[in-house]
Structure formats: C-alpha cells, structure tokens
Inverse folding.
C-alpha cells in the first residue's frame, strides 16, 4: 500500500507491506519469498525510497519474517484501535530503506546466499 493508501500515513514515495498465509503453508519461507519480490518491485520498478512493515506484540513469527527480509525495528505504537478486529493492540513498526536494501543486495552478491540472515 503506497502513500495515503497505507495504514500509517506515508508519503507517495514510501510503501507499507502486509501479509498473511494459511496455517498449512506456515514455516516454508513462503511469505519471506513473496515479500522479497515485493521489495524488489518497490525499489527497482516503482523507485520507492522506504518500505514499512509491522507486527503485533507477541507475533514472533511475523517479527522473524520481517527480520529475514531485512526490516529493522523503528518504533512502537501502543494501544491502537484495530478496526478490522475491533481490538486494542500494540504494534511494532519496522522499516527497510532503499539504501539498506541496496547494501544488503551487494553483501548477498559477495557472500552468496544471504537469505538465511
Ligand atoms: C507470520 C507469517 C506471515 C509467517 O509466514 P511464513 O511463510 O510461515 O514465514 P516463515 O516460513 O519464514 O516462518 C517465519 C518464522 O516463523 C516461525 N514459524 C513458522 N511456522 C512455524 C510453526 N508451524 N511453528 C512454530 N514456528 C513457526 C519460525 O520461527 C520461522 O522463522 P525461521 O525460518 O527462522 O525458523 C504466517 O505465520 C502468518 O500468515 N500468520 C498469520 C497471520 C499473521 O500473523 N500475519 C502477519 C501480520 S503482521
């Protein structure tokens, strides 16, 4: 979701990625694989400057999926009302900048398959 279509009020040069996958498909690295392609599309084809992601407090699987894609912790939004679930949640927001991603890609080229980081 780019710019004002995002949940977190981004400028048009930035985007937010969200995801879910059905339980039978968990643990096969499918979300990181899909997110990596979205990241490539966002930075290479769409020329975005930053990408944002987030996970609710306690969702370690989602946190890990983001780490594996290169997102790092940025800030926490406490006690937000989540309309979709009519619930109060704390969300940790992560970010990957274009520069960070480029550096990551260069490192991968040098050391081989860095996808497991
Ligand atoms: C979070 C989610 C998107 C991860 O997608 P995925 O394709 O399973 O991602 P991965 O296979 O890379 O797994 C990520 C981590 O989750 C953990 N994990 C995955 N499946 C697991 C399972 N069945 N049991 C325990 N841990 C599991 C592992 O720690 C894994 O990290 P590792 O590869 O370093 O061991 C998926 O579990 C999901 O859709 N969950 C429900 C919806 C949701 O939480 N969406 C995110 C909203 S922010």
């Amino acid at each position: 979701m780019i710019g004002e279509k995002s949940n977190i009020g981004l400028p048009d040069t930035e985007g937010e990625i969200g995801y879910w996958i059905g339980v039978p498909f968990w643990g096969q690295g499918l979300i990181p694989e899909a997110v990596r392609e979205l990241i490539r599309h966002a930075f290479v084809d769409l020329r975005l400057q930053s990408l944002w992601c987030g996970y609710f407090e306690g969702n370690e699987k989602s946190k890990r999926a983001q780490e594996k894609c290169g997102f790092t912790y940025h800030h926490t939004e406490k006690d937000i009302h989540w309309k979709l679930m009519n619930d109060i949640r704390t969300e940790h927001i992560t970010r990957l900048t274009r520069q960070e991603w480029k550096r990551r890609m260069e490192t991968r080229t040098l050391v081989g398959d860095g996808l497991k980081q």
Summary: Strands lie at 14-16, 50-56, 72-82, 87-97.
